[in-house]
Q: What sequence folds into this?
């Protein structure tokens, strides 16, 4: 992928108009298609490479370049193609997959509506079966049911996977997906389809987001993506999953790849921003050292280190968490893999958590990098503005981060609830401890650390883990206790849930913090080279202690820290910043971003001449 | 100003090219000039209105519209015009002020260089006096001395106030300002002046930022802005201020208005973002209440309240702090006001602190508002993207925020040092307490609160103040103790300073937190209407407690809070969010942003028809 990326113009001219940028990104996408690479992730039975993890990792690399191209590719092959593959059956695969992989059938993923973004179970669009003609009638009942923010819709898409309430025989069966043609070969909207343009956005202006409304548009019965449910010619509904909600979430669950891909793209963008800011911080000098009279390199200032180095450490942590996530996805979604509902659910929870934490981290980190580069960081030529503008929406698309953390908490609570039945409160508390400390650790390879807290050195990995796991356990157990009140007859369920919402979000966050830490700790453990391992261990310390520092109020409030120990965490973070300062350049070089992709005046790197066979 | 603003096209078409946007903003600026309003802030002796506070308040209103126009106007009348007025004398005023006020002489403020942004005392540009011709030779000795990011330079500026090391008789006297013509009437760069374009930026693309380099450009001796220092025809240097550093900072100090204006503009932008997000949050529904089946308005969710309401409370607090600041500036800088060095210094410290905290707050708040509006918040039509992109640079221009907080700390330390000489450590600690609790409070009108901490109700204003003042005192006193080590002979000054930098920034921040709180508390105290006062008091509580919540680790670490009390702060913030929820709309309406300026599809407000005599 790196090799191929060198042939793509990575940074859009910042003064491109929306139309020009879209044109360029569409070109780039078709040229990626021609390379055959998008086939990597599809089912080998239909000409794909079957390498689910590989395609997400490759996709992630696009995050170093024009993020519009990343999102456009994500819409075409991840969302649209992924939905056809995962929700459809042979009749769809045979007919469409090849054209989708090759970019000959540009498509949309039409789920979100103006009125429903997070709560997609309550979409307004309807698909009503008409047995007389054996067709579905796809309809937008009002303005709030209009499909909105749909990538590939405003300009290029010819077909859409439309999510709609499926109605047959006068009864609704919940949200299902159908393939609906929206544009003719000439590019005109088809009869009954109204397409409008979302216009300019904060970023990602190479992606043509638009709105779709349907006025009784008829599609054949076979347009239903029928892997999990089908409608017989006479209108009889059938599904392998009886419960409507469960069915819907099973369908959604297969689409987890999009969320994982966004987390990966955010990681690449954060890495690139850090590479720019750290390298600039190593050359920029400001104010003199009174002793020598020499101007000080800004990265030598503690305040500057504090802006960049903990963020750098957490970027490493998230990289390892992402690796685990992609690897788990690869196993669960491999073509022909046996269905494992528990593994699938765990994957979804982890994906939701890592996506939320990772995209928020990217937003904050890119902002810090921009500020660390001062006025130069505000100039488009220095790449940070585009990174910032493009990644901003990552925190709210492919699942709003706040809603995703609630999903995480819900997943944790239901797992918890399933296991604690019949336990006494004491046993329950102990159980949560065991469960978190045991089951989850097992996979991450850090089980050797558990139970070995001999002393309380802040740099002791087992102690760090104990702190993070303890916080997670406590927040989850207390949340469960608190929410139990909602089960009482006549309880004000909304009131109880809402009062605990802040608590719930913290519990989810604490869980993700621990999961991300475990991924980093496991990576340190498995590193063979002693020098690399020692350096990574320090980076892991900085990550862990900066997370603990940010949450140190909790540790004191809950008796885990004395006041003195809490202050010591801040001192340790400062110390680690100083210790890692000499390695900052090594650490950003470790991301392996090819030099040409960082070309900007700020770093004094000239843009490489575009190769003769440049893609765009 | 509001009336006039209604005649300006407030929101630039988001798809404007850089050239088109610049054109439009230049037009807007000339039309503001024609209104005569920019005269408001200038000296009546030269046709001005002498209303220093009025012009900054009016300027702030531009922050509701196109921030490019705000910055362009700020460059012309605030920075360029302000420098001519404050650093020049009658010979400059008579010749240029009228043309500046009327927009006939567009100008630049050429201070920042590529190599020196924060440390402007070490600029590289030179102005060497040549007695033979009675001219200064302005020269850029190398690429890092190039003037950079200069507003009005790339397209419109005809003259620049150039900051350069003044050299006469072979000796440098430090940085001084000179008027240097840069463009002819036809718009061409003058001989010896190289002008380049900074190009596209993250935002503010209606402002033509550029770079200036001078190749031995000669200007007459009278071009020196000579209020504080002059060069005689024979090259003899004279100044009313002997110490070079003090002279330089006196010159800089007169320019404090720019910093105050940026704080005001940031405040307006944050208000507008909140008005959009709160109003949207009151109409947007998502997920159903299990009891009623009705979809819940998102602002009813605690998590959503937490995103917006503490930010709203702090926006009120900063509004009152800004009012105090503008009022103090109005008194200190009024034409003919007696020079008061202490008042001037206090103004500079306060301006630095409020600017840093206010612009960071705006960046974070606009980001939170964008996220709170989901995908809709990412669309340019809904105004938030432009607000976000434009205000981003506020945190690093007109003084980098981190450097400004260091300035605040330095101001506090020198005041502290001046007064504690000869005091025992105990007396010293007590002194700081007195000083902070006494002197500073006096002006803010909350002295009635001090010493009345009867109980420890978190909603007790005196208790809140005690907490904030106590933190400020402790951080400052411990900082002073820590830095005293640097005075020892042979001490590693840089090392000691650098290790304490985080501490120093916290001390500065704690000071600003207390100053902002005092401004809000005083505003509550002076509010006559009982209903308004009761509501404002709750908003002040939320502001104070959310600041204390964010810093609660410190309060526990330093024995000010028990663990239980610390947790109670979080509970109180949650409770206040609920209590203020019904008033959220009232509170954003309180900003008085005219409806037409909030026109966007998200709020369902149509853009008003442009008036027949629209300015742009």
A:
């Amino acid at each position: 992928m790196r090799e191929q990326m060198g042939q793509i113009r990575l940074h859009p001219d910042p003064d491109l108009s929306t139309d020009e940028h879209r044109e360029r990104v569409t070109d780039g996408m078709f040229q990626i298609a021609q390379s055959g690479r998008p086939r990597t992730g599809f089912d080998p039975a239909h000409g794909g490479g079957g390498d689910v993890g590989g395609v997400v990792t490759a996709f992630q690399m696009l995050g170093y370049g024009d993020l519009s191209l990343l999102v456009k590719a994500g819409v075409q092959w991840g969302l649209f193609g992924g939905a056809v593959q995962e929700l459809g059956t042979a009749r769809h695969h045979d007919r469409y997959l090849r054209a989708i992989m090759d970019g000959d059938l540009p498509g949309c993923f039409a789920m979100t509506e103006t009125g429903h973004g997070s709560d997609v179970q309550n979409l307004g669009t309807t698909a009503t079966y008409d047995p007389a003609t054996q067709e579905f009638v796809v309809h937008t009942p009002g303005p709030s049911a209009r499909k909105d923010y749909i990538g590939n819709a405003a300009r290029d898409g010819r077909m859409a996977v439309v999510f709609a309430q499926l109605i047959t025989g006068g009864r609704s069966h919940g949200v299902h997906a159908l393939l609906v043609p929206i544009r003719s070969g000439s590019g005109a909207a088809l009869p009954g389809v109204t397409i409008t343009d979302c216009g300019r956005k904060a970023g990602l202006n190479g992606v043509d987001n638009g709105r779709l409304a349907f006025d009784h548009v008829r599609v054949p019965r076979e347009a239903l993506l029928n892997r999990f449910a089908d409608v017989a010619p006479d209108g009889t509904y059938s599904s392998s999953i009886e419960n409507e909600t469960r069915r819907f979430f099973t369908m959604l669950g297969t689409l987890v790849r999009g969320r994982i891909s966004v987390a990966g793209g955010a990681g690449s963008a954060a890495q690139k921003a850090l590479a720019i800011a750290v390298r600039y911080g190593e050359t920029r000098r400001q104010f003199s050292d009174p002793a020598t009279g020499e101007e000080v390199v800004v990265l030598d200032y503690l305040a500057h280190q504090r802006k960049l180095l903990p963020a750098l450490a957490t970027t490493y942590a998230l990289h390892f968490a992402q690796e685990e996530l992609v690897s788990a996805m690869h196993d669960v979604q491999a073509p022909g893999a046996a269905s494992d509902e528990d593994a699938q659910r765990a994957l979804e929870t982890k994906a939701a958590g890592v996506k939320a934490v990772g995209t928020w981290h990217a937003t904050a980190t890119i902002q810090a990098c921009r500020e660390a580069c001062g006025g130069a960081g505000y100039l488009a030529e220095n790449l940070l503005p585009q990174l910032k503008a493009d990644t901003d929406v990552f925190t709210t698309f492919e699942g709003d981060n706040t809603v995703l953390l609630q999903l995480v908490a819900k997943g944790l609570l239901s797992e918890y609830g399933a296991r604690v039945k019949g336990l006494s409160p004491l046993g329950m508390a102990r159980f949560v401890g065991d469960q978190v400390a045991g089951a989850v650790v097992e996979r991450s390879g850090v089980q050797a650390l558990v139970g070995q807290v001999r002393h309380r050195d802040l740099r002791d990995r087992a102690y760090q883990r104990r702190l993070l796991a303890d916080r997670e356990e406590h927040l989850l157990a207390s949340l469960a206790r608190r929410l139990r009140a909602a089960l009482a007859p006549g309880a004000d369920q909304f009131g109880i849930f809402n009062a605990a919402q802040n608590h719930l979000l913290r519990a989810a966050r604490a869980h993700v913090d621990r999961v991300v830490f475990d991924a980093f700790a496991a990576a340190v453990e498995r590193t063979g080279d002693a020098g690399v391992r020692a350096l990574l261990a320090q980076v892991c310390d900085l990550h862990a202690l900066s997370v603990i520092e940010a949450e140190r109020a909790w540790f004191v409030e809950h008796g885990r820290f004395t006041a003195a120990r809490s202050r010591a965490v801040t001192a340790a973070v400062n110390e680690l910043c100083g210790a890692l300062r000499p390695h900052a350049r090594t650490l950003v070089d470790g991301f392996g971003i090819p030099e040409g992709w960082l070309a900007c005046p700020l770093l004094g790197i000239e843009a490489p001449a575009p190769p003769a066979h440049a893609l765009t």
Observations:
- DSSP finds 19 helices and 13 strands in chain A.
- Chain A touches chain B through 76 residues (CB under 8 Å).
